[in-house]
């Protein structure tokens, strides 16, 4: 069982869907708050409400979708059908979310609540089965690291496209509103095609025991009595919260603090390109120091970089870019290795409790990841509102200080928690091999 290897085409075929998913993910992560406040016309407080409610609903639906997915039976498998049938509704709702309707203020507020909430649900229907698919493709410990690395390379590729060209792409149109709508339509077409490619190029090899009849209590036990999973969830939450804050604050930081909005696209292109380079060393870090050790190193690098940026004057643009690149480099193993650790916790639950609850485990991790997005997105908007932020106006000293602190001190504080979590993780490669051997012996 532990010797299963995937072909190169299967690895790329799986990972490429995350390129498409991140066309949505990075668009909402990086630009939606700015779109709501500076294009759509919502106040920072109203935007905080929309993002808080929509992302909370998105997070709450994750465990529900996980339960549905792991109980699905079809001729295409348990998880792959959701990539096939969920892609088009997700595409349509993404475009509507980035559309400015011809309504009054109250009507636009309702539009924002409805479209973004519906988009989040559609995103869950596709992303939860896709993430859980990792555990169904192979049980090999090292293969999962390779698979997650390729997946993250594709994810960073999608993120690089969105972060690098959206700002300029929107500028080609007569208005920002028109630019964001057409940009999202372009991304939606590409994402739909890539999700269908992954559906066609993958196969679910690892199946639950034939006699398994999952009850709600089984799924709950696999999640709640799973110490390695709890640690991974903490790391997922911290990593996503840090990334959310950095991505969402960057447009404000360059527009108002540095007074260089022309550098927003360049910033995202450079920092995400650095994350690509980090992918080359992440598997080596995992082999030498373990998956948790790689995350620990990434967190420490991020702390140093965030502190360096905090003390750098706004006039030192090159140095700000240097610290930003170092933060991106530190974030790479955090983004990659968490996904490689999750399938191992699925095996742990099967070894300890006798049930394979991959849907529940991946959905619970996604729930906390999206909860971090909720806290990050709504929290940023809330901090800006409290600091007196007014869109497209000269900012007060309090507002500028809030943006600066969010860009630097907040990620550093989050990474301290990541360090503690990484040191508490115990399901290393040796422990994983032992539990797989015990399960194989039991089946024999």
Q: Can you put this structure into words, describing what you see?
A:
This protein has 444 residues and is mainly alpha-helical. Helices cover 82% and strands 0% of the residues. The chain is built from 13 helices and no strands. Helix 2 packs antiparallel against helix 11 and helix 4 (105-137) runs antiparallel to helix 11. The longest helix has 47 residues, at 264-310. The radius of gyration is 21 Å and the shape is globular. The mean pLDDT is 88.
Which features would summarize this protein structure in a list?
444 residues
Task: Please render the helix and strand layout as text.
Elements: H1 8-40, H2 44-70, H3 81-97, H4 105-137, H5 141-171, H6 176-201, H7 216-224, H8 227-257, H9 264-310, H10 317-353, H11 358-386, H12 397-424, H13 429-443
Helix pairs in contact: 1-4, 1-5, 1-6, 1-8, 2-4, 2-11, 3-4, 3-6, 4-10, 4-11, 5-6, 5-9, 5-10, 7-10, 7-11, 8-9, 8-10, 8-11, 8-12, 9-10, 9-12, 10-11, 10-13, 11-12
